[in-house]
């Protein structure tokens, strides 16, 4: 799972985007500015997305997304709408088994281009951007090794964008110098540690020139290579990390105007912080425990205190962990938020009316949901569990009985039901009431479809290619479903007035067709 940070809805707060290889989607989580995030929105992309990157591809001052789809040998471009939502992806073919993507202006035309590393045919593909969100056919370079990760920068100060590529086959990094027309000159190799994986740039010696750092997975080190500013690098200096270092990021974590390094250690569930002591010399690592099998890390100001915080994706326990920074470069214990399966779905709302944000989480393996009350400081009280249906995967909150308390609706994927749990007050919920829907329900939307002032439900049924609409009575109960056939494998649903008739329609993602369908509301 890769993770990227950006302000996707232009509200001055940092948001998150992650790839979900298990269901061929990406997740967008809009930030609240206090290290918490709104409910996730998922977008269907190609097969097994592995990396995501953000930039403005059509020059509208709105961040767009580029996603690597590893198993179908494509990249997907999703243009941003400026409100945190994205358009359907546009597909471009790459080389075999693309693994990594990087953004840069490779031909000096002030338009964002893309570089894709193709592990299957040991090549890189350059996609020159047209500045309108579209890209030209790729220019391909055969490297002779597996390019695991790539970073872009002007390494020799000639105003042309260059590439640095991690070569895990030969334990080197390769520099390819740009010609400013989208092509590159012959590569120069520098020895690093065993099995280099991810590479980053940073000015580690405070001389306004870009140095390099790379993780070496097999010998549990990072290599730092300082530059002379003209494209040549000194021999590596290595620093011990935790077990199986994978990704890394840079930032000034202790506000001393020096660039520090954070490394994710996937083998021992930790991260390592390397504070920059002087001119590219780093202190020994300080480690922090995170979730199970962490993979990706990125930085941002998640609680708006002007200290650089961290967010880590924990792949095996399907969480993200936010580590808030202290002034001295140390970090607080991670605050976790569930984003994937086992547990799967999550929603955040104030269930007990104490003005603190609470959580409700689906637990797919034990057929329950957990409610955790927030303490205002990013921590949560012990969970309260409620029994629901078989394999709950999606959860949402709304006031279904008009008592000004937030209730819950849960999608139970294996028994063709939804569960409604009414809030009795104080965040205590009644036992579930279940309603039959279609086969393998997945997504849900709660809005007023018939304009009677009462919330209704729309549920996506993935395996019978339908949606179910259940009209609410305003007292917390719902009528039997009315089913509508849509396209192949619907997975997500969102309501909106797409035809400007003041009635809420539905947009449904169809993963079997890689498309979206609009279901118009024909209520009188």
Automatic annotation (TrEMBL):
InterPro entries: FG-GAP, Integrin_alpha_N
Superkingdom assignment: Eukaryota
Keywords (A to Z) from UniProt: Signal
UniProt cross-references to SUPFAM superfamilies, sorted A to Z: Integrin alpha N-terminal domain
Official protein name in the record: Uncharacterized protein
Lineage of producing organism: Eukaryota, Metazoa, Spiralia, Gnathifera, Rotifera
């Amino acid at each position: 799972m890769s993770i990227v940070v950006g302000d996707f809805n232009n509200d001055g707060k940092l948001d998150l985007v992650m790839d979900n290889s298990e269901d061929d989607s990406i997740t967008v989580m809009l930030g609240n500015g206090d290290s918490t995030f709104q409910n996730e929105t998922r977008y269907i992309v190609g097969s097994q997305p592995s990396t995501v990157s953000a930039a403005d591809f059509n020059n509208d001052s709105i961040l767009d997304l580029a996603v690597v789809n590893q198993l179908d040998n494509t990249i997907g471009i999703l243009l941003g709408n400026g409100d945190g939502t994205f358009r359907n992806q546009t597909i471009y073919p790459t080389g075999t088994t693309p693994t990594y993507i990087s953004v840069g202006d490779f031909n000096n035309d002030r338009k964002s281009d893309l570089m894709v590393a193709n592990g299957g045919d040991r090549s890189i593909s350059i996609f020159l951007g047209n500045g309108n969100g579209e890209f030209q056919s790729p220019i391909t370079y055969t490297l002779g090794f597996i390019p695991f990760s790539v970073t872009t920068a002007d390494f020799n100060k000639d105003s042309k964008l260059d590439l640095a590529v991690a070569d895990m086959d030969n334990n080197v990094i390769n520099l390819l110098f740009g010609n400013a027309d989208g092509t590159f000159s012959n590569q120069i190799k520098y020895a690093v540690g065993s099995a280099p994986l991810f590479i980053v740039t940073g000015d580690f010696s405070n001389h306004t020139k870009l140095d390099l750092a790379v993780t070496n997975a097999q010998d549990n080190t990072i290599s730092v290579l300082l530059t002379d500013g003209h494209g040549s690098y000194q021999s590596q200096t290595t620093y011990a990390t935790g077990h199986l270092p994978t990704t890394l990021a840079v930032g000034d974590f202790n506000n001393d105007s020096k660039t520090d390094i954070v490394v994710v250690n996937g083998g021992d569930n930790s991260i390592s912080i390397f504070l920059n002591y002087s001119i590219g010399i780093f202190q020994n690592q300080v480690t922090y425990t995170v979730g199970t099998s962490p993979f990706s890390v990125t930085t941002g100001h998640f609680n708006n205190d002007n200290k650089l915080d961290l967010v880590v994706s924990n792949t095996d326990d399907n969480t993200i962990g936010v580590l808030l920074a202290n002034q001295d470069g140390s970090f607080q214990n991670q605050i976790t938020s569930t984003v994937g399966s086992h547990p799967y779905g999550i929603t955040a709302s104030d269930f007990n009316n104490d003005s603190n944000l609470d959580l409700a989480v689906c637990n797919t393996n034990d057929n329950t949901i957990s409610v955790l009350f927030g303490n205002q400081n990013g921590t949560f009280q012990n969970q309260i569990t409620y029994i629901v249906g078989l394999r709950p995967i999606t959860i949402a909150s709304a006031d279904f009985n008009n008592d000004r308390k937030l209730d819950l609706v849960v999608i139970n994927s294996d028994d063709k039901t939804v569960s409604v749990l009414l809030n009795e007050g104080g965040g205590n919920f009644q036992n579930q009431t279940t309603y039959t829907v279609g086969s393998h329900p997945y997504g849900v939307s709660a809005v007023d479809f018939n304009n009677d002032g009462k919330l209704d439900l729309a549920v996506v049924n993935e395996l019978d290619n339908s949606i179910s609409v259940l009209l609410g009575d305003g007292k917390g109960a719902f009528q039997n479903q009315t089913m509508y056939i849509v396209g192949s494998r619907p997975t997500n649903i969102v309501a909106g007035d797409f035809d400007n008739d003041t009635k809420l329609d539905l947009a449904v993602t169809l993963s079997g067709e890689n498309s979206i369908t609009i279901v118009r509301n024909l209520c009188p």
